[in-house]
Task: structure prediction
Amino acid sequence: MLVSDIKSRPVYKGLTVDDAARRHLVAAEGEGALAVLEAFGDAPEAWSRMTLLYTPGGSAPANHAEALQARAPDAFHLHPTRQTLMTRLRALLDTATMGTRLYATGVEGFIGQVVAAGIEHGVDHFSIRTEHRGSLARRVQCVHCKGFMDDVTVSPVTCAHCGVPLLVRDHYSRRLAAFQGVSIDAECPGDVPAAEEIFK
Amino acid sequence: MSGGVEIPVRVVDVEQATETVKRFRLAPLSGEALPPFSAGAHVVVTMDDHGRRIRNPYSLIDRAEDGSSYRIGVLRVPNSRGGSKFMHENVKAGDRLVITMPVNLFPIVRTGRKHLLVAGGIGVTPIYAMANELKRRSAPYEIHYAMRNEASGAFIDELRAAHGDKLKLYRDDMQEFVSVSEILPNQPLGTHLYVCGPEGMIEAILKGGREAGWPEENLHCERFLAPTGGEPFSVVLQRAGITAEVRSDQSLLEAIEEAGVDAPFLCRGGACGQCETTVVSCDGELDHKDHYLTEEEHASGKKIMICVSRLKGRELVLDL
Result:
């Protein structure tokens, strides 16, 4: 079953501002910019305590970066890719102090990577505020070769690393920030159903 | 047994640590090794005061490395209903007691990157065990230990010897108090705070933590309530078909046990939730004292924690 109410499936409760936080460390991707604009609104006080990391992804033409910058966050870092954003985020988490509240918004694979980075730095995942925006594309790990693929919208999907056709299971790993992809034709090699676009 | 497996023990050593605190070393009668416990755990000690059974939770200080004994620390409470008074006045080396298996409601968060341990008075007992475990694991930690005066600090010498400058003392008589504005700033992300001590201290520390922007997930406390006495009332155990009287010096749970019903319990201090019981009806007002049920659940009148809460009224009917 591809869609189920399994416990490992993260729940994204939406961005809400923790007024007690001394610093808002916000990581946003693509359409997640709109969630940040809505949640933090016009409160200059909250923006003045914000370190904002943004990567436009597929939303670049909408130019949300300009709208974010116009609210004058205390620090604003625009990144060309998720990977470069994550590098900066990890460096910030390394030196962050308690009182820092972590927020993540964008596509699921991005949120998952931010949450995993938080967990690596001792942050309880329940204390990270998250909001899903944009496509339902999944980050998938091939359980056979352990390679990761971002933005997977179909199942089965051919592993970009080892070439095995993978069923994208509804089985999520918080540590890896990825859904698990398992060989779909292990018992009947070559018997691979047509790919369906399930995660739009 | 509703409280879990019980272990008969013999008191092998009693140490008067301060004027009001005694430490007891307990060894199993069976001679088998006592189970290892995770720091922060407690046991419930059953005492037999001339036929009257008293059960109190006490945090475990430590376990002998070969498992031959546990240590607990007991503060003599002035308004004791009997437990701490009995331990102080009657229990001597050689005596027998019964303890439950260790239960931990106050564990160290192992994913944390640093740990702030805050103790007030006898609240130091679980903190003592936690500090030792953190030291063994080479995890970063600080100990903030508040006491009335140096003479009442039951664990100062042992803590100082083991933890050196990681230990900071605060003495009421020197006008020294644990201040959240001093200990909370500049702690690295992923720090967890654990506080055990008097109610007012716990409240102040937790409030300070929330105001400093610490998430709830990083703030931990343990508070065992001693069941207070109160007006007597009747309890009807509907399923068992038993009616019993709850005396003024007795908790509801104790009265139920005296009536021969094996009701569920673990901590006997309003913290763990094990003894949550459905109220069928009550003639009077429920007097909730626990830290487990939410305010809404308290207001609903449908649940009661029988270890510490009671009825102000005539009769309480329980689904037991």
In short: The domain at 23-132 of chain A is CATH 3.40.50.80 (Rossmann fold). The mean pLDDT of chain A is 93. The first helix of chain A runs from residue 32 to 40. The interface with chain B takes residues 18, 20-23, 93, 96-101, 119, 121-124, 126-127 of chain A (CB under 8 Å).
